[in-house]
């Protein structure tokens, strides 16, 4: 029979260890600190084709993550995808005429939005729209175009 | 032919009866909560025997499962030149699946069987009847603290398992196989989501803890009060808990991660 | 309590009790009156459901028909709260002692006090030590139940059953499996406690000698019915051949020595064919 005080101490240590493990998972593994969800402002951008872009996909500038995709909608009149970007509050000096492109991380990786800064003196703010966009590259289309041009070349040679 | 039908009917009725008794017992256990709150000492004692005594097996298994994940994951990922994402793979499989599930299976084997044996023996040695005749409700006094001890311990044990597993994967991946230290953590942090992965894993472990403890207590309380009956009940606890955990894991995964 | 005032009303009165387990009928119309302040023994061969009777009186089992009144209250009609209140005034000594195995002797005896009263620790200590003194085990207070012999465990359980000063104690086979010395100790204790504390006692047993030495009244049950009841001396020299066989422990009588079988000669000869 272990003394009840020892039991209390061991139980306390157990619960502390469990909580530490949980915080480790929250902070170190999932990086709670970096996913500053609340603070930021929304801007929209229209794309002809967003490929496999998803809500929560990263938004980067010069390779640095500055926000996330917070919503994806569809405009029924223009048949365009309307993507809402939540930019972290500290990045508040992004020129209004920046260029938004959808990139793919690696050959098979997920897609993300990259912003190329423009030269404007005015900056993006909540509710602005990015007008310069480039759609996602769809692999099938590229391959299709490649084969088509090859076939044309082959036709000329004969 | 009719005999077969009758046999089937008897089995079905028996199963339904057990299920009914199990749910009534759960109700009785939950009703005991108001009596438990003013006496945290009872709970502490049970957390010791349910949780603290399971730490060793949980942490050793967690560490080794993480190390194996590191080795296997590296082998497969390096074929695609994607060793950098080893951290994601180790952490995602641990936090989402292996942590809650394997910890629950070990919990059923270590703590669940011990609970069943303890309650079954208390029944066989008339201790439960004795309590009743002392005007003490054995469900509230004996089962309720054990139930909530399981409820509290299981998520903590699963978190320990996952955390140590990530550490094990880090040792193997970064320490042994030379994956880049920064990439390991950065990729992991970029891809593992607090809500989607960590919280859902925690919810799973809470559900598994409830179910395993409930099954263990019911089997003990419902055991035939002989040494043979108790040993059978102990076996049933491990089998039923394991099946329940795996089945529920599928359902929960489908609910949480299936869009 | 209304019932406690009237000394004439029996403490426990059982009327038309029927109880069966599955298809096996255990009691088939049993009437028993347990008087106050006396030791009443309920005797019968093994497997007649004597322990079941105690569980019925304690309200742990429900009869299929008939009533059991304890101290004027129909025990199977009480709500949970009243039933528990009544049980606090009933002590029960289980065959195995039923001590809680994870706490020591002192804590076992103190258990009902801690559960049901708000007495101060020093008061609890005094009461527990007094009860342990009464069963002669004050020196064993720090032992764990696993360190006790069977007889000692029963004495500790007796101290625990008495610690709330109940109106009655039920003994389930208190003498089985005891060596002569601890048997003698228990016989003495039961008699002394009954007389000193103005208890009523119910003993369920098949140990004829010890039981008839201390009982004031004996009921003999067999096959689900009360066969006979009366004072011990009258029972030993009973008119009924069955009661005589049971009380005197004869090998053959109405209960045959041989399990029903064909004639021996037939059986032996039959095999060679």
TrEMBL record, chain C:
Q: Name one GO molecular function term.
A: ATP binding
Give the keywords, sorted. Answer: ATP-binding, Nucleotide-binding, Transport
SMART domains, from UniProt? Answer: AAA
Matching entries from Pfam families are given as: ABC_tran
Q: Which domain of life is it from?
A: Bacteria
Chain ranges of the ABC transporter domain = 12-248
Protein name, please?
Answer: ABC transporter ATP-binding protein
């Amino acid at each position: 029979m272990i003394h009840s005080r020892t039991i209390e101490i061991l139980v306390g240590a157990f619960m502390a260890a469990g909580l530490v493990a949980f915080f480790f998972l929250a902070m170190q593994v999932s990086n709670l600190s970096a996913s500053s969800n609340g603070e930021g402002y929304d801007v929209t951008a229209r794309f002809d084709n967003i490929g496999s872009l998803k809500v929560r996909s990263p938004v980067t500038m010069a390779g640095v993550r500055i926000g996330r995709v917070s919503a994806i909608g569809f405009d029924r009149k223009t048949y365009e995808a309307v993507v809402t970007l939540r930019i972290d509050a500290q990045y508040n000096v992004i020129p209004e005429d920046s260029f938004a492109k959808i990139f793919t991380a690696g050959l098979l990786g997920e897609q993300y939005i990259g912003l190329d800064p423009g030269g404007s003196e005015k900056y993006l703010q909540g509710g602005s729209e990015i007008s310069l966009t480039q759609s996602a590259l769809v692999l099938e289309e590229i391959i299709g175009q490649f084969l088509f041009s090859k076939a044309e070349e082959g036709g000329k040679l004969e | 032919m009719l005999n077969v039908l009758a046999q089937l009917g008897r089995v079905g009725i028996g199963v339904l009866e057990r299920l009914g008794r199990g749910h009534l017992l759960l109700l009785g256990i939950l009703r005991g909560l108001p009596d438990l709150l003013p006496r945290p000492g009872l709970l502490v004692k049970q957390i010791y025997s349910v949780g603290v005594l399971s730490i060793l097996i949980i942490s050793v298994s967690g560490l080794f499962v993480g190390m194996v994940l590191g080795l296997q994951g590296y082998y497969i990922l390096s074929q695609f030149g994607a060793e950098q994402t080893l951290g994601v793979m180790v952490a995602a499989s641990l936090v989402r699946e292996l942590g809650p599930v394997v910890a629950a299976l070990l919990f059923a084997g270590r703590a669940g069987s011990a609970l069943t044996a303890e309650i079954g023996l208390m029944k066989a040695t008339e201790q439960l009847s004795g309590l009743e005749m002392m005007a003490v409700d054995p469900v509230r006094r004996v089962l309720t603290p054990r139930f909530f001890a399981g409820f509290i311990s299981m998520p903590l044990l699963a978190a320990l398992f996952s955390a140590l597993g990530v550490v094990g994967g880090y040792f193997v991946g970064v320490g042994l196989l030379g994956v880049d230290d920064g990439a390991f953590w950065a990729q992991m942090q970029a891809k593992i989501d607090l809500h989607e992965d960590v919280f859902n894993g925690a919810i799973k472990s809470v559900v598994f803890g409830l179910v395993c403890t409930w099954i263990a207590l019911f089997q003990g309380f419902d055991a035939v009060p002989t040494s043979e009956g108790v040993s059978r009940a102990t076996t049933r606890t491990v089998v039923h808990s394991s099946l329940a955990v795996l089945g529920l894991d599928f359902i929960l995964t489908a609910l949480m991660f299936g869009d | 309590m209304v019932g406690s005032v009237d000394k004439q009303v029996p403490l426990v009165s059982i009327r038309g009790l029927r109880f069966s387990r599955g298809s096996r009928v255990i009691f088939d119309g049993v009437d028993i009156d347990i008087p106050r302040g006396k030791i009443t023994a309920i005797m019968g061969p093994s497997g007649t459901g004597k322990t079941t009777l105690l569980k019925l009186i304690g309200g742990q089992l429900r009869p299929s028909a008939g009533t059991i009144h304890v101290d004027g209250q129909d025990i199977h009609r009480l709500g949970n709260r009243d039933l528990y209140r009544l049980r606090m005034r009933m002590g029960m000594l289980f065959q195995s002692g039923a001590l809680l195995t994870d706490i020591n002797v002192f804590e076992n005896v103190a258990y009902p006090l801690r559960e049901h009263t708000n007495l101060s620790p020093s008061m609890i200590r005094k009461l527990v030590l007094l009860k342990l003194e009464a069963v002669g085990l004050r020196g064993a207070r720090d032992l764990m139940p696993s360190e006790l012999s069977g007889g000692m465990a029963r004495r500790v359980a007796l101290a625990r059953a008495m610690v709330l000063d109940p109106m009655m104690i039920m003994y389930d086979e208190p003498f089985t499996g005891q060596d002569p010395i601890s048997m003698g100790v228990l016989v003495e204790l039961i008699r002394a406690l009954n007389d000193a504390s103005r208890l009523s006692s119910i003993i369920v047993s098949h140990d004829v000698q010890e039981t008839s030495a201390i009982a004031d009244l004996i009921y003999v049950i067999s096959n689900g019915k009360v066969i006979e009841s009366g004072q011990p001396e009258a029972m030993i020299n009973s008119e009924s051949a069955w009661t005589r066989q049971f009380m005197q422990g004869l090998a053959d009588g109405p209960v045959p020595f041989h399990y029903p079988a064909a004639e021996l000669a037939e059986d032996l000869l039959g095999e060679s064919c």
